[in-house]
Write a structure and sequence with these properties.
This protein has about 160 residues and is an all-alpha fold. It is about 70% helix and about 0% strand. The protein has eight helices and no strands.
Length: about 160
């Protein structure tokens, strides 16, 4: 929460843990704080060695929740390429519909072997979700710009 109240991003934020960055990303996405959102994404992608890190399930879940298209896609691809099947806990975390769709793609990958392109299959299967993530991120930026523009006009009048 601390970062969302600041106008400028402080230079020292090494003490912020992954779980806090997740909260910061959610709030920054919800409220349209573009710079803080970008910082949260960068920090979560580059957590120091020996610290917490994001799993494929984290990328899938947080990428979907926070409209980080590449994270969602990365999480899907990584889960499909796992050697072991998706367990109940993971399936519940990602939601039944997504779990079933990923299992379907995983089975297809196992059947087709090397001829299967996981990334293309994910882009095809989750096209709607990936397009929505891109569109939502753009709409948030447009809404913010419109709000600032109308506030500026109100101030001038």
């Amino acid at each position: 929460m601390a970062l969302t109240y600041l106008r400028e991003i402080p230079p020292h934020y090494d003490s912020i843990h992954l779980i806090e960055w997740i909260s910061i990303l959610r709030i920054a996405t919800m409220w349209g704080f573009k710079d803080i959102r970008k910082l949260a994404i960068e920090r979560m992608e580059n957590m120091p060695d020996g610290c917490c890190y994001m799993t494929s399930l984290d990328y899938l879940i947080h990428g979907g929740e926070c409209q980080v298209r590449e994270w969602f896609k990365h999480g899907c691809v990584a889960i499909i390429e796992l050697e072991e099947p998706i367990d109940v806990g993971r399936a519940e975390s990602m939601g039944l519909e997504i779990a079933v769709r990923l299992c379907k793609l995983r089975e297809e990958r196992l059947r087709r072997g090397r001829s299967f392109c996981t990334k293309s299959a994910v882009e095809g299967e989750f096209k709607t979700e990936l397009d929505i993530a891109s569109k939502d991120a753009q709409e948030v930026e447009i809404t913010i710009l419109n709000n600032y523009t109308s506030k500026d006009q109100d101030i001038r009048n």
